[in-house]
Each structure stands twice: as C-alpha cells, then as structure tokens.
Amino acid sequence: MNASSSSSSPPQTQTQTAWTYTTQGLPRQILSINHNYPVPPPPSGTDLFIRVTHISLNPGCYITLEAIPTWVRRLVSGGKTEYVPEGEFSGIVVSVGSDVGDNSSSSSSTPSPSSDSNADPKFTSFQQFKPGTRVFGCLPVPSLLGGSGTLAQFISVPSTQVCVVPSKNMTMAEAAGLSGAGLTAWAMLNEVPGYGVSEIEREGSKPRVFINGGSGGVGTMLIQLAKAQGAYVVATCSERSRELVKSLGTDEVIDYRANSPLPEYLSRHYSSASTRFTHILDTIGSQSLFESCASYLESTGVYINVGNFEGIFKTVFRAFWNEWAEVRARWGMGFIGGVPRTYKMISTTPNGAKAAILAKMVEEGKLRVVVDEVVGFHAQESDGDGKGRGVLDAYDRMLARNVMGKIVVKVQNP
Ligand SMILES: NC(=O)c1ccc[n+]([C@@H]2O[C@H](COP(=O)([O-])OP(=O)(O)OC[C@H]3O[C@@H](n4cnc5c(N)ncnc54)[C@H](OP(=O)(O)O)[C@@H]3O)[C@@H](O)[C@H]2O)c1
Predict the structure, then answer these.
(1) What is the pLDDT along the chain (414 residues), one digit of tens a residue?
(2) Rounded to two decimals, what is the model's pTM?
(3) Which residue's C-alpha comes closest to atom 15 of ligand 1?
C-alpha cells in the first residue's frame, strides 16, 4: 500500500511512489516507477519532511546517471542499492526536526535579499518552516551523488537547502525550477572573484555580456539577472526560441544555427573596441568558442563556462587545460593551445539562503522561471498527441536538448 496524504498531513503508510534505478545508464533504460519505495523516517535535527508537489529536471542528473558507476553510488550512499534521481523540488512541509526552532518573529514570507552573493547561510533561520509552509529548494550534493533524490512523493531535506515560496508571482511548478539554474546563473554573474558584472559597472562602463545558449534553464535565468544588473546582453538560441529570448530582455539575439560557425560570426561582428564583450557566459561548453575568443572578448574580460554538452569527461579535462591557456599564451606557447584570456569553469552549491535572493526578485516581479512543459508523474509513455506525457518523455526531451527553460514533473497536487 503506498503513501497518500493531502496538503501537509503525514503519510499514512511506510511506503510511497518514487522513480528509482539500481544501475548505471540513460533514464529510459534504467528508470522505473516503484510503488513500494520507503518513506523517509521522521525528520531529526534541522531536517524538514516535505510532501513533494513538483520537481524540475536538470541535465546534470541524466549526465551523472550515465556517468557514475553503481559501486560509487553504493559507497557514497552507505550501501543503498536502489536510488532516486533529481535534486530540485517544490512542496509542502509536513513536519520539522526538533532543531528547526520557532522563528515566528519573522513577519515576511521571504527575508530581504543580501547584496552579498555569498549570503550567510544563517539567513535561512529567518524563514519560518512549519507544517503547511510552501517551500522549494535543491538537495545537497552528497544526497544527489548517493541517489537520495527528489522524484518521489516525500523527501527529507536539511532546512539550510530550503526556501519559502514567494507569496506572489510564482506557482509551485515554477518554484521547482528556480534553485539550480537560478543559482548557477547567479554564480556566473557574481561569484567569480574580480569578474562580477556589477564590479564592471562600478568602474564606469556598462558590462557587455555574451550568453552562449540563452534559451535553456540556465540561459533564461542569466539573461534576466544580467539585465537586472545593468548589462548589455547578446545571446544565442535557435530560431524557435528567438521570441522567448527577446522577451526576457536580450538586446541582440543571434541564431547560432543560421550563423555557424559562431566563433567566425562573432569575430566578424564583435571585434571592435566598442563591441567586444566583458563576459562570455557559456551554458553549452563550446571549446571552439573559447579557443577563438581573443578577438571578441576584452583582454581584461572573462570566459565562464558551466556547460558540458560536448561530453562530461571532455569538459572536465578541458576545464583544467583551459584554465592554464592564458599562462601558455603569455609564455609564448600559444601553438599548444594558448589563449590570452581568463577561463573559469564553475559549479554552484545551492542553498536556501542564496535562493531567497532569487525568491525576493520573483516576488518583486524582476525574475521569472520559464516553464516549457509540466508532465505527469505516473504516465510512462506519450500517447502520441502531446497529452499524457510523463517522466520518460520529459527525459527524452532533455536528452534531445530542445527544452526552453525548465521541464517540470507534477508529482501530486499542492
Ligand atoms: N540547470 C542547472 O541547474 C545547471 C546547473 C549547473 C550546471 N548546469 C549545466 O549547464 C548546462 C546548461 O544547462 P541547462 O539546464 O541550461 O540546459 P538545458 O535547459 O537542457 O538547455 C537546453 C537548451 O540548449 C539550447 N542549445 C542546445 N545546443 C545549443 C547550442 N549549440 N548553442 C546555443 N544553444 C543551444 C537549446 O536551445 P534552442 O532550442 O534555442 O537551440 C535548448 O533550449 C548543462 O551542461 C548543465 O549540465 C546546469
């Protein structure tokens, strides 16, 4: 008998429905629905027990499903043999651990944003978490690697990973897509020391930001956050995404398919002193774009990459190689791949305190999560006419890399 509950009432049974896997591979090969997956134990310490309403899919998840051997997962998870994918969620607090405390002195649903991009994690303690609170967030990295994911009806999460859903301008489906992509974009714009977009503005000139891949989860966030921070934004996408990318505030949209190869196009149109970029923010991970960037990226600019669409192992190797490209170029070793520009590969560790910065922006109408499609939790196959699409169809779309913004799974009604 599997768990059922409404609103914030605790589950009536010890089992629940979850998508699980026991081996390494692509989602359609390894995922199946399990109606008897154990419900997490009651929350202890600072944990929250959450009834999940929505989750959003993240490319990092299907990449690691395929890349991480099962023995590694078993090791990280302390011996588990069945795993749940995904890390982002929105849902409703069912119960709280004994150390979550009563923060009822707070009057706001979300705390004020901090101008410090590394906002103090204690910030979260100003948020009220109690049964019935609508929340969103992202699991900590060890849970992701250990396969204690969110594609399930109930989860237990440290409260430091969680943020209250803004009181206006945001649905639960949108909330599920805010943390991962939003905080990655935030980090690209604000957390590389010496290269923050607002630092450039303070020096008197407007930052000129080029976004490679403006229509995906990270790209749609980057455009809005860069515009909110005063940048001039040029972004790529395919023709079908042009209207969306424009509507988010992009100043110039480039169709990367019609203008291929992109590095040559940029060299032709963006190499003058007034058109060169201060930041190239790559959500795709295009090696050729970096190798040619000296002609369209200012010498004091930065190339920041989070993408791995050319392959995860290649990307990891290149990250190391590219970080030294500037040194090679300056020591006269350009012939072995030197590029006289600064390259940074970054990742982010989402937490509730930082998510509160984005939640506040949403509440104020300055940021929105673009949701491409909301699919069902139970449907396993498309019925062929676009209705009844489920989890596996959603993964197929992710793998085909044709999602605009975020793709969300509705697990149960809020
Ligand atoms: N989402 C996160 O939380 C997160 C966090 C950290 C790192 N990352 C990494 O960042 C990368 C991007 O993630 P994401 O969530 O933004 O991916 P995504 O949403 O799956 O990106 C899909 C989009 O990529 C566009 N695209 C595909 N090839 C392109 C190309 N050559 N040039 C420009 N656009 C292209 C497609 O746009 P068109 O249809 O317009 O072509 C599609 O809309 C991934 O490698 C991911 O692992 C993501």
Answers:
(1) 455 555 667 777 799 999 999 999 999 999 999 999 999 999 999 999 999 999 999 999 999 999 999 999 999 999 999 999 999 999 999 999 999 965 433 333 333 333 333 444 444 445 789 999 999 999 999 899 999 999 999 999 999 999 999 999 999 999 999 999 999 999 999 999 999 998 877 777 899 999 999 999 999 999 999 999 999 999 999 999 999 999 999 999 999 999 999 999 999 999 999 999 999 999 999 999 999 999 999 999 999 999 999 998 999 999 999 988 888 888 887 777 899 999 999 988 889 999 999 999 999 999 999 999 999 998 765 555 555 689 999 999 999 998 999 999 999 999
(2) 0.91
(3) 217
Tokens of 213: 């891949």
Nearest-CA residue for ligand 1 atom 39 is 402
Distance 182 CA to ligand 1 centre (A): 13
- Which CATH number describes the domain made up of 192-345? 3.40.50.720
Answer for the pair 18, 151: CB distance below 8 angstroms, yes or no. yes
Residue (of 104, 95, 3) closest to 44 by Cα position: 95
Pocket flag, ligand 1, residue 284 (CB < 6 Å): yes
Q: How far is ligand 1, taken at its centre, from the CA of residue 39, in Å?
A: 33
Residue-range domain boundaries for the chain? 15-181+349-410, 192-345
Statement: 15-181+349-410 belongs to CATH 3.90.180.10:
yes
Q: d(Cα 159, Cα 353) in Å, to the nearest integer?
A: 10
Cβ–ligand 1 distance for 308 under 6 Å, the answer: yes
- Side-chain-side CA neighbours of residue 251 (13 Å): 14
Helix residue ranges, H only, 287-404: 287-291, 312-323, 325-330, 352-363, 391-400
Angle in degrees, 0-180, between the axes of helices 352-363 and 179-190, rounded to the nearest 10: 90
Mutate to test the pocket of ligand 1, among 184, 239, 256, 404 (most ligand atoms within 8 A of CB): 184
C-alpha 218 – ligand 1 centre gap (Å): 7
Pocket test for ligand 1, best of 65, 403, 408 (most atoms within 8 A of CB): 403
Nearest CA to ligand 1 atom 7: 306
